[in-house]
Amino acid sequence: FSRGISREFPWKAFLIRFLLHHSLTQAASEFRSEILRPPFCAACCQLDIRTMTSSVRIAALALLLPSIASIALSENQELQLIIVKAVLVSVAGYFLTVGAIPTVKEWTQKAGLFGMDINKKGTKAGEKKIPESLGIVPGSVYLICVIFYQVFYITSPSRLVEYNAALASVCFMIFLGFADDVLDLRWRYKLVLPTLASLPLLCAYTGHTTIIVPKFIRELIGVDKLFDLGIIYYMYMGLFAVFCTNSINIFAGINGLEAGQSFVIACAGLLFSLLHLDGSEDPDLSSILLLIPFIATTLGLLYFNWYPSQVFVGDTFTYFAGMTFAVVAILGHNTEMMLLFFLPQIINFVYSLPQLFGIVPCPRHRLPKLNMNTGKLEGIKSNMNLVNLALLILGPQTEQTLCVILLVFQTLCCALAFWVHAMFAQIQ
After folding, report:
1. Integer distance in angstroms from the first to the last C-alpha of the chain?
2. pTM > 0.85: yes or no
3. What does DSSP assign to residue 211?
4. Which of 96, 214, 254, 269 is the most exposed, having the fewest neighbouring CB atoms within 10 Å of its CB?
């Protein structure tokens, strides 16, 4: 592939060869040295965190291939340069995240921000103090990366207003998430705070407020193809921000799930925006530039949060991730597509409604229970969420296997979203 473009675009060929050769070589080496050796320690029967390194690297490489292909094949030199700079800044953000977490986790633990891994209760790992609120690291690094983007991306005052409003919303949500980790806010405040955090973006929003009505509905009720919702659309965007932040927050509880699902959704959103990118003034470019550093920083956090977790992400990360997705969808004018990506979170939310509204007693931690004899998690019917539902359907699973199953389900739902979008485009 790179040879085919090397004559016309030699720098692109070099970039592609370097990324593919370096990543695949290291991934193969780690796969041989770590995955193919017995991964379990006989004394504690726990996976070494390094066994996930090559898997994460391979997954990241596979999901970056659309970005590399887009850079290589696009005829717009301006777009290529912008995306290349964004990738370089994000790579620096990844290494900064990985380098900062070991130091920050010591600070948070000294400050009393730590917890016990409840899914390992009764084992030695369950007695270990795990630093919490480490979502503050990728959140802070993300803001630094996105602020740097203004140097080479912002070309008009109107775009600067929306861009800074998006930064303000994400920054506000990171602060509120960290405050929640420290103060342990009640649920009624968690519903209000995302609405307040989204106000800067909603006030600066200058995009359309119309929706496309499907053809069969137009013929049924006799309306135009474009229907203007006006102020209702702003209310919808505010509620959308509330849903994004809280849906990731309640679809959690096992090592790697919060960061993992966010990583998958972000990669799906990046691919969608790349496929629909058309010029430097396209709103999808804003989505791309906001998602690339998010993927990089989240991958850095996932390295430490994968089973067995060295750190907990805390509400800081779930709020940060949810608001980032809301901002990306609103600025890119594709909130409907983002909702399709959130299908597992919607299923989890609907299934959890009886407990969330107090119809059924709701414990503080709706987690499965660990069977000490088998070392596997077992679902609890009274704890109504997708984690327990998966265990009740599939049977007992190890924590790592359960996380992989849920992330595969998340990936399949994202693939389904692309299919639904393609089918809907044909009937408009």
Report:
1. 36
2. no
3. E
4. 214
